[in-house]
Amino acid sequence: MPHIEPLTLDESDAAKADIEWLASSTGFTANSMLTLARRPEIARAALGLIRAVVRNPDGTVDPALRWMVAHVTSRANGCVYCSAHTFKNGADNGVSDEKLEAIWQFEDSTLFSDAEKAALRVAITGGQCPAYATPEDMRELKKHFNAEQIVEIGAVIALFGFNNRWNAFNATEVEPSVTDFVKDKPHWAPE
């Protein structure tokens, strides 16, 4: 049970259009945004970052990789809400079931390119608080991505740092459509 109950969509008046925009992308209304709508300026700002960072059609990083980075960061931080969402969003944005199944073995899996491995490694090390991405991690990332792409990868990690903390803090309940998606996929979380 969440610590603060989400509003209904009708009650989220000042942030309703932004919340509806996200729902049109995901197929469901996010409880996290309905709760943030109690402070509509915060909900709109968070949704603005989501729009700019992970749902930007003009992004410089492949959407599938953005969602894998978001998932690994979220799961490494222990956020069940965001890791379930990012797992589903990964599937919805081109991450193959094989990659989703192997995501926690990415270091040793031939399914992942060296570039993906570098980004996922930094998703874990850079996503911790405090971050512990090593200079070697960053050198490896720079072999595969330009400065703009590294900024985008870092923004995904930072965005989900906020989302992970918000949803863990509030004990936000995962929506039924997301729960239905992940419940038959034992590989969505590390063992």
Give a quick set of tags describing it.
single chain; 10 helices; mainly alpha
Mean pLDDT: 95
Q: SSE order in H/E notation?
A: HHHHHHHHHH
Q: What is the helix content?
A: 55-70%
Radius of gyration using CA atoms only: 16 Å
For the biggest sheet, the summary is: none
* Extended strand count: 0
Q: Which regions have little confidence, pLDDT < 50, spanning 5+ residues?
A: none
Inertia-based shape? globular
What does this structure look like?
This protein has 191 residues and is mainly alpha-helical. Helices cover 61% and strands 0% of the residues. The protein has helices spanning 16-26, 31-36, 40-53, 63-76, 80-92, 97-102, 114-125, 135-144, 147-170, 176-182. α3 runs antiparallel to α9 and α5 (80-92) packs across α10. It is globular.
Summarize the structure.
The chain is 61% helix and 0% strand.
Break the fold down into its secondary structure elements and pairings.
Elements: H1 16-26, H2 31-36, H3 40-53, H4 63-76, H5 80-92, H6 97-102, H7 114-125, H8 135-144, H9 147-170, H10 176-182
